[in-house]
Amino acid sequence: MAKPTHTASSTNRPRGYAYCAWHRGLSQSAVLVQIIEQGSGPGAGLYACATCRAQHHLTPVTDQ
Ligand SMILES: [Zn+2]
Q1: N or C: which end of the chain has fewer CB atoms below 10 A?
Q2: Residue 53 contacts residue 61 (beta carbons within 8 Å)
């Protein structure tokens, strides 16, 4: 797994960008696509960009 050359900074993240969990990078087209059910907890959402959604046949949560 390659790590980004720059350290992710939540304070300087541009508005409208989200972290795509599939290609592991920020994307302006990333939207919430999946809720990971966890044994103990509310679960976590994953964001995927338009390209990764097409490649992995992901459906945005808002369209479900
Ligand atoms: Zn992506």
Answers
A1: N
A2: no
Query: 52 C-alpha vs ligand 1 centroid, how far in Å?
Result: 4
Tokens of 23: 């290609």
41 CA from centroid of ligand 1 (Å): 26
pLDDT, tens only, 8-38? 555 555 577 899 999 999 999 999 986 666 6
Residue 51, pLDDT score:
97
What separation in Å is there between the alpha carbon of 16 and the centre of ligand 1?
Answer: 14
* Structural tokens at position 45: 């959402």
